Q: What sequence folds into this?
């Protein structure tokens, strides 16, 4: 379909349109929903040189970070922010990150976004696999995008798509290209991610991806709840086992809570399509996340309802894999591989719900997927992390 | 008090006034002591992108490095430079530093300033503590300032203050803000540091700080001497034990000397205020350093009087802690903690002395603090590094 | 001799002429061979901020990377490119490299140039030496040049020289300056490297250097061959032992070939001058590499004729040392040291041959150096890597 297309960044041609700015008016689109797209280069502290793209579309604002693997920093619907508050407030330039620090936890010095991709050579907790330290959640999030393109369809509803290509390449070891397409239809409170992992190399490689999708207040609050159709659930470790019964219930910010993590095999429709929902206490604010279990067969609930300042946040994380170190997941069948020239697609949608009807509709869809199937509840962790 | 205030850098608003420049004339201050403040962005080699602020106040020049944790690079009084000559000549951008290199000695690839703060999650020598490699002297010195503000009082003597905030933040691990205020009164040959460590997190954390204050020629020369009131002194290790008797005497640049390090518990007045002095051979050039033992109870003498090219330098280093790895200092009571929301203040002054009377006055103050108290001299190190 | 001289980069004066551009016309040189020299700052992905210098001289184009240790990215003679295709396509800014990653293999995330210097504190494979992890091939290649100067002689043939100084400095550990001079005579298809390692420190230091010179298609192709006068050859490891007989023959891109590495002690003329040649199947395209065995006594053949996408490349690598970890090479006498104030010179030339006569002439010179001497062939590796 015909589109307007704008090249914002491209390493092949050494293009960097650092002050890119565009409005629907400016390009002569007579859209009933006004929009603007703007890139800025951040400054100060460890965000010096980071790039931030802001899509302002009607009453919705989406902020992305090309410098940090096309992460979605946050989404505003009106005044309501979806995302979370990390003690890390800056958009940290990967130049200042050492993933190997703290025994492989350096990733935590930059972690503050709503959508963080973990991967692709590996994801999960740090640890030794094949004699090498795999650092927490892989390298992609600390990799600047090599190519960023904005596309706008020239016919109503003027769908907007921001595409980034992030390379995970290392001589002898890895030749991955990841295309990350975020699209949104002006007027809808939804963003859609269509990602494609391409193995450009001539050798099959193991890969993993986890979509570390994180939500804090206001959608996360005491009395709120997470829903998804569950085939099997198990605690990540002994401590999570203590919270297994209440895994879906959101508690208040709680000193010393730290994190409880749950491994879930979701149910889905025959095509693999399924959905997770997080809503607030009064069930009139929520986020519904659509994904596909053929692409992303498992899901991690990361319940980190510690104090507000420590990071009050829940992760709802579809993935190829759980959050264990890669060496522990081969036996679980959760370390897939990708052949030479092959692609893998990962599609997610985030729908932002701001009334009780929308929340109830999402809940009904999930209950429909659950049907009469009783979740299998395992009391013991799948493996010992 | 009313002041002129200028925001130079601020990550919260993504401000970076990279070519900031101001003169007393330019802002209409009728100061008898002319001054100018200028920021420049450095280029070339590993200093590409480092920022340097130069305060030129009368015959005194102070150079600070926001990009390197608000370090004081050096101070000139007239033509006399206080600071030292490291083989590392560039103002190294932390983007090019890997603290984990060389078993945790990567910090040495950027070390060349007069005032280097070590901290705040830890300071001291590299080594394993709690199963993790603590790299040499912590992370703060390789962290760019997130906020830099210049203030100038609008009444005589037009005191100038440069304030920087450097964050040491990591999800789950640390939520420190450090405000570093350097002030100087035009006409005086003194700089004052008033630092504040704030634990913004909800959990108590261990912390350490060492002010690694370093001086080379001309104030450091054979026949010179360091003075401070001593309650107890001990050698850092066996090699330092060999130099224990002459710990306060400055020798000439000496091939193969490497470094001798001494642990000192200083004496102070009832309020904890105390002073250290380094002067040259003829005792007509010196630097007097004021600090407070309630804030900074111990002091390390780092006598590195190796050859000029290798780095002929002495460190006079008040701190919460000695230079041992953190794991060795808990038993010494030198790993304090800071509760949620708490602050710790650290005040230091550096007075640059350029005649015999000033040196003699400082010496008299120190002798007054020592009084009749005989220093306790321990022949053996406090612990085995 | 009188020259035009242009300072492009200098950390001492904080000079960075990022958009430097010059033509023979522009400076009033009436050269029969037109030339231009241009610096650009690259953008996008991990090459954000990398500088690239392009020398366009007649039908020859030479691209250098000051940001990556003055590497020669590639050379074009007409449409023929000398260099190779790595999966790593960007000119990676060292700010995004962690040499310690993957057990010391982080260097591979930026490796894609024709001339890559390995050194100077160490070169060779990663491994522990003296209790420290030495990362693959040392640090110099991931160090931005501190000073870059362009010189052009003002008389015919208007020889062009681009000089870079790259520092390898670390307090207490290393005080190396490396001057890297690339020169070319307009009209000749040759570049000459004259490098000088200077130990500015007061202590003798071990050093190593390997010139990792890498060539892919079209000069590398099945049926091609490498030639040099050989005194002794041995396989790097058992796998290379399998290919020992055919070490000089170039095979086609071969899935699973990975790399075979051969250790060679070359023969030379009485002054130590010698030559290596790589040519294509029809022996009408080649590159002849001149070096001196007094300076660089050994040479590594790195036959990495894996698939095109994986990296089809051969390295012809004169050095002070083989590619083993430094700890294994002391017993081989291949870890030299450099005294305080001393210099070491390393001169190489690369002549690009584009007809059968030129190739035959180079081959004849090499056969002359070999004469009647039979290469000593060792079946077993010199040491166990």
A:
């Amino acid at each position: 379909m015909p589109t307007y297309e704008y090249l914002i960044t491209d390493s092949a041609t050494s293009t960097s349109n650092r002050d890119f700015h565009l409005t629907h008016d400016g390009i002569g689109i007579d859209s009933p929903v006004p929009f603007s797209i703007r890139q800025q280069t951040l400054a100060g502290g460890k965000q010096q040189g980071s790039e931030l793209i802001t899509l302002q579309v009607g009453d919705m604002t989406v902020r992305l970070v090309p410098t940090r693997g096309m992460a979605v920093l946050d989404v505003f619907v009106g005044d309501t922010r979806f995302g979370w508050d990390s003690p890390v407030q800056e958009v940290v330039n990967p130049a200042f990150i050492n993933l190997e620090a703290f025994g492989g936890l350096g990733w935590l010095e930059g972690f503050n976004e709503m959508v963080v991709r973990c991967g692709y050579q590996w994801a999960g907790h740090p640890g030794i696999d094949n004699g090498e330290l795999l650092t927490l959640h892989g390298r992609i999030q600390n990799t600047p995008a090599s190519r960023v393109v904005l596309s706008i369809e020239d016919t109503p509803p003027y769908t907007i798509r921001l595409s980034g290509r992030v390379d995970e390449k290392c001589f002898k070891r890895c030749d991955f290209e990841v295309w990350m397409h975020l699209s949104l239809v002006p007027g809808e409170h939804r963003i859609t991610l269509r990602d494609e992992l391409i193995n450009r190399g001539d050798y099959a490689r193991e890969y993993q991806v986890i979509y570390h999708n994180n939500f804090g207040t206001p959608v996360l609050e005491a009395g709120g709840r997470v829903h998804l159709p569950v085939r099997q659930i198990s605690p990540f470790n002994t401590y999570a086992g203590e919270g297994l019964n209440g895994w879906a219930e959101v508690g208040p910010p709680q000193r010393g809570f730290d994190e409880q993590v749950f491994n879930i095999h979701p149910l889905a429709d025959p095509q693999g399509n399924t959905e997770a929902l997080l809503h607030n206490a009064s069930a009139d604010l929520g986020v519904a996340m659509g994904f596909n279990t053929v692409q992303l067969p498992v899901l991690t609930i990361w319940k980190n309802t510690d104090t507000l300042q420590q990071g009050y946040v829940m992760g709802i994380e579809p993935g190829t894999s759980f959050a264990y170190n890669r060496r522990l997941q081969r036996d679980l069948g959760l370390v897939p591989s990708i052949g030479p020239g092959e692609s893998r697609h990962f599609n997610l949608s985030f729908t932002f719900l701001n009334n009780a009807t929308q929340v109830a509709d999402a809940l009904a869809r999930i209950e429909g997927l659950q049907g009469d199937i009783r979740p299998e509840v395992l009391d013991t962790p799948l493996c010992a992390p």
